[in-house]
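We give the entry.
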Amino acid sequence: MVLQMQRITKNSILEKGWNKNASHHHDGQSMVEFALILPIIVLLLVGVFDLGRAFFSYIAITNAAREGTRVVTFWPGKATIADINTAIDTEIGASPMVDVGNIASRVIECGDPSAIVTTSTELQDCTSEHPIRVTLTYSFEPILSFFFPQPLTLRRTAEMMVP
């Protein structure tokens, strides 16, 4: 089988409709399209980063609520409200993107018909085989505050049985 190469000449290019100057007429079009699409791409990237921050904060307050309940299960009858708050602050303080000052509320409940615990003596009266619940409410302030003018409220509850 013999391959034949077709000789391309100026006349054959013009006959097929190819114009060597045709690509030069659209040089600025790609720059204009890029300039139009760049803000959308940046907005999407910042949105993804912000969503990641919110998810990280959600995990951090989940872990902090869990640490607060663990304090009571490790020292039943001896744990105080200050111990729980210290465990929560320590766990959140270990997270670089979560601010302890943005915790809107900390609620500690004990018992099956949940009773809110406000003092250390009430916490020490939490009897064995009853659940202890710590609920944290966190105000997340997104970077894209022009889309979300109000802070997003993240709430997590951790529950464990008092031994």
User: Anything to note?
Assistant: The mean pLDDT is 86. The longest helix spans residues 27-74.
